[in-house]
Amino acid sequence: MLLVVTYSRAARQTLRNVCNGHEETVVQRLGRAALLEATELGAFLALRLRAKHAGDVQVERTAPFNEFAAVPETVQDAAAAYEDREHPSTPYAAFAAGTDHPAVESMRDAELRESAESRE
Amino acid sequence: MRVRVRDADRGEVVREGRAVDLRALDGDFDLSPRAVARVVRGESPDPGPVHDHVGVITATVSVSPRAALAAGARSRGHAAPQAEELAAVRERLAELDPPAVDLRRARERVADASDAEAEWRERVATLQGRVQALREVEDDSEDVEADYGETKVDLESAEADLAEATRRLSEVETERIAAKQALARARERAREHRETRRERLRLEDRAGNLRRAARDHLAERVSEDFEAARDAVPEGDFSEDVRTALAVARVAELDAPVVVARGADPFEMPAAAVRWLDAPVLRV
Q1: d(CA B158, nearest CA chain A) in Å
Q2: B232 burial type by CB count under 10 A (0-12 exposed, 13-18 middle, 19+ buried)
Q3: Which of B100, B194, B208 minimises the CB distance to A7?
Q4: Is residue A120 part of a domain?
Q5: Do A34 and A75 have their domain in common?
Q6: Which of B3, B135, B196, B233 has its CA at 20 to 30 Å from residue B29's CA atom?
């Protein structure tokens, strides 16, 4: 999908107008942003917005997220285990200490694998 | 006030007083508050913000009541509690100067480089196939003297082409990598610059909210007087907007003249308009 994010009042207003006029191409509205279908029409709308508002419009193409392809098992397991913790008040750092679960710091700097189908 | 206008028959005409009636004159008058200010000489001050709303009251006048009333309240010296914060927000907005964000060139360079790389990769593959085939022919034809010379020439030329294509491929690969890195750096910079834009948007929204809150507060301060003034508008066949405009003009403190046009004038005499509005009045 195409993620369109606006950074000015004028651009945000144009995005609203565009979304109102093309509901079939809008997957999701998110305040000053919107997800558009990854079609030529979606791209046309995004490019129109950028032509009008230049740097106040950011367009990104999203990729499907497949944790089995992109995320190490340790991270998947840690997320599941932490959500299953006994005491809801335990912070993750304390939860992970002394276990095999990865530390926040190590995850912060580790980029996701680029799986073939998520590549642009 | 003293008004100096051109009449079609009489030439320059001068009228004086708090109430000036131009209805008998034959002229094409520009009725904008600024133009009125220009023809009005004497100690009459410049039109204030209220004049932008109700400075010229015609039969087709259009008024946004709350904004007009807020301006009226200001003319009477009322201040909004939001004023100070609003000024601070506007000052910060004026200081923000988000750098330009334009990744177009960087994106285009990556796309071009990727296309070029794909093209040369294909060319290299084709030439490799050709060289391979010619080598096989060469091996097979070692016994056959006649064909051998020709094949050798073809093979040498294909090998040279392959070497050249491989060299070009390596070049465009390098370019693609460089372009990708340049785009990554530009995206990183754009991300920082967008922070400034996000901040600007946040401040603009804040300013908008403060402005509306201030307007509502100010309009509220004079709303009772305004309702009374609207009830006191003399009878006549006038639109809601005309009544609102007249009432706002009555509530506001006006030093510069108000233009009251035919069709929006419930007053029998100019002097009555001056008394009711408590402002200099130009009748047109």
Answers
A1: 34
A2: exposed
A3: B194
A4: no
A5: no
A6: B233
Q: Rounded to whole angstroms, how far apart are CA atoms A21 and A8?
A: 20
Is A58 an 8 Å CB contact of chain B?
A: yes
Q: Looking up tokens 């006549």, which residue turns up?
A: B236
Residues of B in contact with A32 (CB under 8 A): 201
Domain extent listing, chain B: 2-78+222-283, 95-209
Q: Which pTM was predicted?
A: 0.71
In tens digits, what is the pLDDT along chain B, a chain of 284 residues? 778 777 777 778 788 888 888 877 766 667 676 667 666 665 567 788 999 999 999 889 999 999 999 999 999 999 999 999 999 999 999 999 888 888 999 999 999 999 999 999 999 999 999 999 988 887 776 655 555 667 778 888 999 999 999 999 999 999 999 999 999 999 999 999 999 999 999 999 999 999 999 999 999 999 999 999 999 998 888 899 999 999 999 999 998 889 898 888 898 888 899 999 999 898 88
Contact B53, B64 (CB under 8 A): yes
**How many helices (H) and strands (E) would you count in chain B?**
9, 7
Domain residues for the domain of A9 are 2-61
- Residue B141, both tokens: 């034809």
What six digits make up the tokens of B246?
Answer: 């007249």
Does one domain contain both A57 and A101?
A: no
Instruction: Based on the fold, state whether residues A6 and A57 are members of the same structural domain.
Output: yes
Average pLDDT over chain A, rounded to an integer: 92
Query: Is residue A118 situated within a structural domain?
Result: no
